[in-house]
Amino acid sequence: MTHPEPSLSASGYRPQPLLVQEDSCYGVERVRERGFSFAPQVHREERVKVPMRDVVCPVCGKSSQIPAAALSAQCVHCRAHFETTPYVLRSGTRHRILRTLGNVVIPEDAELSHLDITCSDLVISGKVSGRFCAARRLELRGRARVTGELSADSLSVPSGASVTVTPSVMSQNVELRGELRGRLIAKRQVHVYSSGRLLGDCRAEKLLLDPGAVHEGFLLK
Ligand SMILES: [Zn+2]
What we know:
Order of helices and strands: HEEEEEEEEEEEEEEEEEE
Strand content: over 45%
Largest sheet: 14 strands, parallel
Helix content: under 10%
Bound molecules: zinc ion
Radius of gyration: 33 Å
Oligomer: single chain
Number of strands: 18
């Protein structure tokens, strides 16, 4: 008794498995042989040393390493996304909102408002307003005038500088060798060197005044 030939469906598809003969080129043994003979030679993985650099996340404050050539990066701790480009912001710049792991410089002749800057090191010599957050160092130079929110890990005012912050600046540690007008809030230490002048109220865990240093204002609790 023979089975009737299964009828072809409308599309011509014959619903039967394809049986491969042992001696065909798809035979198990041959595939195995060919598999071995054609297998690419496996080299031990060569590790290429990518130059890395340390960065501090301006959002969570934790440090990590990124490839030195990376144009952008994501913080492994808080997933915040940043570019890595450094910027010099001059009057008329279109970069008013920045989140970068690079450094930002605002030169003396720059006058800019409505800025929102998050970066690594920040140097301000010009007249600016907005929100500024430096994950590492903030330096206020020359005759800098800053209005708005200003925070950094460390703040320095070099000697010869006479800078104004309105209403206040917040930092972990502060080194004043020049003059700072405005309220200063430091989580750790404020050091006013002999050439330094702090004209405004100050809150700090520790306030060091060198001989000749000036502080006019209240020491806030
Ligand atoms: Zn982070």
